[in-house]
Amino acid sequence: MAMRTAGSSSDGTEDSDFSADLEHAEASENARRRSSTRLTRASLRLSRSSQGKPVAASVFSSGRRITRSQQGATNTTAKKYPLRRSRSSGSDTEANDLKQGADRDETPPRTPTGNAPSSESDIDVSSPVSQEEDERLAKELSLKEAAAHDLSHRPKRRRFHESYNFNMKCPTPGCNSLGHLTGRHERHFSISGCPLYHNLSADECKGKASTRDKQAEERTLSHRQDENRHSTRNQAPSDRQLRYKEKVTELRRKRNSGLNKEQKDKYMEHRQSHGASREPLLENITSDYDLELFRKAQARASEDLEKLRLAGQVSEGSNMIKTIVFGRYELDTWYHSPYPEEYARLGRLYMCEFCLKYMKSQTILRRHMAKCVWKHPPGDEIYRKGNISVFEVDGKKNKIYCQNLCLLAKLFLDHKTLYYDVEPFLFYVMTEADNTGCHLVGYFSKEKNSFLNYNVSCILTMPQYMRQGYGKMLIDFSYLLSKVEEKVGSPERPLSDLGLISYRSYWKEVLLRYLNNFQGKEISIKEISQETAVNPVDIVSTLQSLQMLKYWKGKHLVLKRQDLIDDWKAKETKRGNGKTIDPKALKWTPPKGT
């Protein structure tokens, strides 16, 4: 019975040529050669690379290796077959041997056990060889097959920096976002790193960067030389330092006293053509030495901003302010606010908590706080009880303050759309006073003339004062003003998520308090609305959410659920009367017209 021997090449594909030859040879072979196997292409390459050296071939047949004991078991002389030429290698001598062998016998190239090769291309399977060398060659063969599938030697595909978002663009008009002021980066996304904004090219920035590196190396070398000098407190300057001082003095003495007419015309033309989109021309304004110091400081600041951006602390180009420094707090923002681009690109703003002016750095804020005379919001103080005060601010009289307040509120509100058109609104700002001033707790705004009787247009509690009862105080104060105006009020829609939670909690508390004090048998939604100044629609929706409104025999009934009232009374007793609005502390009359 003929046995079909399966074989595979070194790259894992079946050798179709060898398989066809084997099928032709199996008809003429006897059963004595059933344990023989054919060579793989990897073993052929290995035999040709030996070039006459004694080789022990590890031949695999159905997963079994032929050992010396198996080779000695066969004493018969097997017929020799010439090896076919491999696709990957072969010398002229091997080609001649293959051609001569093909003329002598055209039988398929098979090497049975005990075969004696007739040339250096034939493998002597029956030659005496050690077990260790056989195992070594088998290991080399397996390593070569594994290396064929190993792609680690291939060059990796070039990737751009992971932090680069190529949807972002530099805000400078006409800039393609290539290059960087520091000369160390391939792209930029902000004015601080834009070469075009600074009237430079990307190549000039790279040249300046190399010059700065050389100067830094020279400075480091000179410092090392000065380390040998004994350091004392009143040490005299070295000769190198004296020479450098004389050089700087000479450079500063050479600067021009003023600009000539041609230079002035050039500067004016530059300003008229580019405006604020480019940095003014700085040449001849000061000495070359001082100008170079200024350029170095710009490059260093741009490099620091780039490091912060890569670290995620600054979001240049995305116009998203991540944090604000507000008084003694550093607050994480929630939403985007349309601050000017030059401030929004920094990622962090510094604000005066009294006048709400926003600044770029801690130094500017410190200088501002030393000069700022505001200690409370502008406008009239209409409510004070303890350390809690409420100021009424007219958007028409204090436009800048109200605009800054709206920009600040947008950082924590999603649905707010009012930023700059503040004149038709009144702002009621709640503060908490201490020995340093009145600190902003929250605010709400309302239209001066609302046709839908909205008593709140926008309401906000600052994050550092949330979950302390100030939100309900602001809502209660807005309804107190509606009671004084003898109107029924309701907040303007849509409400934010936190605003909806706060208002539903307030309406629930108002209704339970009213039902607890109510002693009659029949109750009217209209009477509740007139006494609490809450819109009837809001009252009905709250009763439905509490499952206190039922329809029975053609009538709507209000169920007085004593369990809810008892729970509310227990919470009121536990909470106390600390965060409540006292109507007697209000000193206010409704404004007349606009």
Automatic annotation (TrEMBL):
PROSITE patterns: MYST_HAT (PS51726), ZF_CCHHC (PS51802)
A single BP term in Gene Ontology: DNA replication
Reactions it catalyzes: L-lysyl-[protein] + acetyl-CoA = N(6)-acetyl-L-lysyl-[protein] + CoA + H(+)
Keywords, sorted A to Z: Acetylation, Acyltransferase, Centromere, Chromatin regulator, Cytoplasm, DNA damage, DNA repair, DNA replication, Isopeptide bond, Metal-binding, Nucleus, Phosphoprotein, Transcription, Transcription regulation, Transferase, Ubl conjugation, Zinc, Zinc-finger
Matches recorded under InterPro entries: Acyl_CoA_acyltransferase, HAT_MYST-type, MYST_HAT, WH-like_DNA-bd_sf, Zf-MYST, Znf_C2H2C, Znf_C2H2C_sf
Biased composition (Basic and acidic residues): 21-32, 96-108, 205-230, 240-251, 261-277, 574-585
Subcellular location as annotated: Chromosome, Centromere; Cytoplasm, Cytosol; Nucleus
GO cellular component: chromosome, centromeric region; cytosol; histone H3-K14 acetyltransferase complex
Domain MYST-type HAT: 316-590
Segments of skewed composition (Low complexity): 37-50
SUPFAM superfamilies registered for this protein in UniProt: Acyl-CoA N-acyltransferases (Nat), CCHHC domain
Active site: E492
Coiled-coil ranges per UniProt: none
Known EC number: 2.3.1.48
GO MF annotation, one: transcription coregulator activity
Region (Disordered): 1-138, 205-277, 574-594
Biased composition (Polar residues): 1-11, 68-78
Family of this protein: Belongs to the MYST (SAS/MOZ) family.
Protein name, per record: Histone acetyltransferase
Annotated organism of origin: Cyclopterus lumpus (Lumpsucker)
